Amino acid sequence: MKLKIVQAGDPVLRQAARELSHDEIRSAPVQQLIELMRETMRETMRDAPGVGLAAPQVGEPLRLAVIEDRAEYVAGVPGDRLAERERSPVPFQVVVNPRLTPVGEETRLFFEGCLSLTGFVALVPRALAVRVEGLNARAEPVEIVARGWYARILQHEIDHLDGRLYVDRMLTRSFMTDAAYRRHWQERPIEEVCAALGIAPP
Ligand code: ZN
Prior knowledge:
The protein contains 6 helices and 8 strands; from the N terminus they run ααββαβββββαβαα.
């Protein structure tokens, strides 16, 4: 592990992170932080699905996150499950000082986990589509329009910058260990999971 990922309970995960200036973004320490976050995110893939990492998760209260969803991460996942989640590869990307706006009213409900809540997952409703405006790693303005799993990743990571965790948004009756998820629920349609867990689908 290149950087230590802090776990729920660490104060840094509950504070609003601060914005970075253009000069700070281009500075050597922040460029190095981005590189280390990229390496750390990739290393986590050995045992957990880390498709995004926000700076507060490595102890830095900065409005910065890295995202990457590679095709190899979902090798072996059935095509219909990927299609249901609208999940396709997302190239490595850095978002700085992002502002997120939902696009449309539609939401989707799926299980998600977090590298700062190791070993657990829960059903979390998220906007199906979002627009994100912010800066890239060169401090240039970028606008991202995303839907499906990509939109979910952005919402999850940008929540971290506001001191929010998925447990704040989850359907609490669906909170479970990753092992139980894989054993009992992973293969079942979400409507069936909701019925079995006593959850009224939102
Ligand atoms: Zn997270």
